[in-house]
Amino acid sequence: MTEQGRTCGTAALLDRVALGDERAWRDLVDRNSGVVWGAVRAYSANRADAEDAWQATWLLLAENLHRLRDAEGVSAWLVTTARRESLRLARARRRESPSGLAGLLAEVDAGTESPESSAVRSVSAARMAQAFAQLSQRCQQLLRIMAVAPDASYEQIGAALGLARGSIGPKKQRCLRALRQRMLVSGSPDSVEGVAG
Amino acid sequence: MNVGVPEELRSLGRLFRQVDPAPERAVGVAYGAADRLVRRCGSGVVLARVGDSAAPVHPDGASGAVPRVRTLSFAAPGRRVELELRGPLAGAFRLRGIVLSRSGQPSPSGVVTVRHGRGECHGELDSCGGFTVRDVPTGPVRLLLFTRRADGALAHRASSDWFVC
Questions:
Q1: What integer pLDDT is reported at residue A191 of this predicted model?
Q2: Count of structural domains within chain B
Q3: Are residues B115 and B93 located together in one domain of the fold?
Q4: Nearest C-alpha neighbor of A91 from the set A125, A128, A53, A61
Q5: Which residues of chain A lie closer than 8 angstroms to B164, CB-CB?
Q6: CA-based nearest residue in chain A for residue B68
Q7: B118-142, pLDDT tens digit by residue?
Q8: Please, where are the H alpha helices in chain B?
Q9: What is the CATH architecture of A1-99?
Q10: Cis link prior to B88 (omega < 30° from 0)?
């Protein structure tokens, strides 16, 4: 995100977008890409489906931005649309359920081993992935979005997951507790410290 | 990184960003959507999606029986478009549908266009308002309906929002 984008309020940013300022549009994408990607991945079985839902979400925003009356509501609109399009696609393509982290780790191409991918394959990362994969789908969706978009508000997260804003905090605590328990069971109470950073 | 974010979430965030970031090409597509910005209201008739057999039954996931063929319904003033989506076969769908007019009105003549990421596919309306559009690729698409007057001039243009097939 550019410095200008960071210091600019959403309403002012949208005014610039409406005037055709392409950099303002890029700032809008940068500001929201984490939570939108988190939402489409949370509800998509694979990356290809997520990319289709992602693409549709941004196209829909471009063609409906002039109809949105509340500038501050753009993020909520984006994640709601991302979730809705992902769910429709999952149903249309008869996908079973979103893939967990364990599956993702397996997707790392063994033929292109790099220091980064090697670190990701580390035991501690694998344990965390295993613990995460054992959580309920709802917990996986919640923690995934909170992990990739730590700046997202509870309102945005609620919109992304179709949950009431007031229920986010308690669910987050329950899901984190479940994650810690599963990591303890896997015999690695300190494994979170060892994930590549 | 935010102060106060639990260590587990930080670790998960690092892991997701390493193994599952938003792909660069997807971010590029999002940047490119700026070309589609609509800057004023009322730039055409909207074909509103009023039915979709792929709409989830429950808000948190894809559950319930899913029909083999996806059906969608779109409505605009005086018009209704019923659509049947079959496929994909070799990465492409076949769309069959019918454009319905108000009771007592004749079937329109014209063309249905499916716009997608790599271009467009077209299907001419037959005498009953039926149409077929072949080789529609998977991914985001939108439906456009152009109807003609008897002299061949454009009578109406209506378009749907993007949806993924």
A1: 42
A2: 2
A3: yes
A4: A53
A5: 52-53, 55-56, 85, 88-89, 92
A6: A92
A7: 889 999 999 999 999 999 999 999 9
A8: 7-19, 24-32
A9: Orthogonal Bundle (1.10)
A10: yes
